[in-house]
TrEMBL record:
The keyword Signal does not apply. It is found in: Membrane. The gene is tmem19. It holds the Pfam family DUF92. It comes from the Eukaryota. GO terms for cellular component: membrane. The chain crosses the membrane at residues 20-39, 81-105, 223-245, 257-277, 315-333. It is a multi-pass membrane protein. Belongs to the TMEM19 family. Keywords: Membrane, Transmembrane, Transmembrane helix. This is Transmembrane protein 19.
C-alpha cells in the first residue's frame, strides 16, 4: 500500500514540477515580449518579437536539454551550455534551430550505436556521450556568435538565402550552416566509421594504415558518412525554409543548401583529420592495446604532436569552414 502511495506521490510531484516549469516559461516569455515592446518604443528600428516566439525559444530547448540530461547525452555543465546555444539559435531563426536539432539528435543516436565496438578502441569512451560545456561550446559557440550577429543585422525571423538582396545575412546563414555541418560530418565519420568500416583507417597525410582511433585516420565509409551527415543538417535547414518562408519564389533557388551542407560536412571532417594528424598526439599503448593521446614508457608514437586536444581541433575546423566556404558558395550559387 505504501509503495502505491509513493508512486502516486512521485507522479503528483512530477506533474506539479512540469506545471511550474510551464508557468515559469510562460511568465518569462511574456516578460521578454513586454521588454521588446518597451525597447521598440525607444528604438524605432527594432521590431518587437511575438510572445509565442519567446515561448518556443525558451520552452523547446529547455525540454530537449532536460531530456538529453536524463539520457546522459549531456552532463550538467553541458546542459546549461546547450540551453544557451539552443535559445539563441531558436530565437534568431527557426532554420537555425532545426539544423541544430538535426545535429544533436543524430549525433546522440550515433554515439550510442555500436557502443561495444567503440569501447574496444576508444580509451575515453563514455556511455551516451556525456558532452560537457567545453564540447558544447566548441561545436555550438561559432553558430551562437553568428546567430547573434544575424539578429543584429536583420532581427529574429526567417529569410531566404539570397546574396543579391541580403548579402551579409545570407553569408551568416551559410557560415552557421557550414559550422554545424562541419561538426555533424566529423561526428558521423567518427561514430559510423569504426562500426561499419571493414578496412583499417589510413592516415590522411601519408595514406599509411593506422590503428582504429588514430587522430587523422580516415576510411571511405567515414568520408561518405561525413557527407551524409552534413547533407542531413542541410536538408533540415532547407525543409524549414520551405515551411516558414513565404516568398521563396522571389529569391534565389534554395535547394543548393542541401549540397552545401554535404560539402561542408565532408570538407570539415577532412580538415579535422588533417589538423588531428599534425596537432594531436596519437600513440599505441601496448599495455592496454588502444590508441591514446599521451606519451608513456609503453606507448609507441603514431603521428602528431601534443599541441591541441580534440575539442580545440573541432573548434578550429568549424571556424575555418564558417569563414571560407560561404565565399566559395557565393560564386557558384545558382541564380
Amino acid at each position: 500500500m505504501n509503495s502505491e502511495n509513493d508512486v502516486v506521490l512521485k507522479e503528483s510531484i512530477k506533474m506539479m514540477t512540469d506545471m511550474i516549469v510551464l508557468c515559469a516559461t510562460l511568465a518569462l516569455s511574456l516578460f521578454f515580449w513586454v521588454l521588446s515592446l518597451f525597447m521598440s518604443s525607444f528604438y524605432g528600428t527594432l521590431q518587437p518579437v511575438s510572445p509565442w516566439r519567446w515561448l518556443f525559444s525558451i520552452l523547446v530547448p529547455l525540454v530537449l536539454t532536460v531530456r538529453a540530461l536524463k539520457r546522459r547525452s549531456l552532463d550538467r555543465s553541458g546542459a546549461l551550455g546547450a540551453l544557451l546555444v539552443g535559445f539563441v539559435l531558436t530565437m534568431a531563426n527557426f532554420s537555425f534551430f532545426s539544423t541544430l536539432l538535426a545535429f544533436f539528435i543524430t549525433s546522440s543516436k550515433l554515439t550510442r550505436w555500436g557502443a561495444a565496438q567503440k569501447r574496444k578502441i576508444d580509451v575515453d569512451y563514455k556511455e551516451g556521450g556525456q558532452r560537457n560545456w567545453v564540447q558544447v561550446f566548441c561545436n555550438g559557440g561559432v553558430p551562437t556568435e553568428l546567430a547573434l550577429l544575424y539578429m543584429i543585422e536583420v532581427g529574429p525571423g526567417e529569410i531566404p538565402i539570397d546574396f543579391s538582396k541580403q548579402y551579409s545575412a545570407s553569408w551568416m546563414c551559410l557560415s552557421l550552416l557550414g559550422a554545424l555541418a562541419c561538426s555533424t560530418g566529423d561526428t558521423w565519420a567518427s561514430e559510423v566509421g569504426p562500426v561499419l568500416s571493414q578496412s583499417q583507417p589510413r592516415l590522411i597525410t601519408t595514406w599509411e594504415e593506422v590503428p582504429a582511433g588514430t587522430n587523422g585516420g580516415v576510411t571511405s565509409v567515414g568520408l561518405v558518412a561525413s557527407f551524409l551527415g552534413g547533407a542531413t543538417v542541410g536538408m533540415a535547414y532547407f525543409v524549414t525554409q520551405l515551411l516558414m518562408v513565404s516568398d521563396l519564389h522571389l529569391a534565389d533557388p534554395q535547394w543548393p543548401i542541401v549540397v552545401y551542407g554535404g560539402v561542408a560536412g565532408l570538407l570539415g571532417s577532412m580538415l579535422d583529420s588533417l589538423l588531428g594528424a599534425h596537432m594531436q598526439y596519437s600513440g599505441f599503448d601496448a599495455s592496454i592495446g588502444k590508441v591514446v593521446s599521451y606519451e608513456s614508457a609503453t606507448t609507441r608514437r603514431i603521428c602528431g604532436k601534443p599541441i591541441l586536444d580534440n575539442n580545440a581541433v573541432n573548434l578550429f575546423s568549424s571556424v575555418l569552414i564558417a569563414i571560407i566556404l560561404p565565399g566559395l558558395a557565393w560564386g557558384m550559387w545558382p541564380r
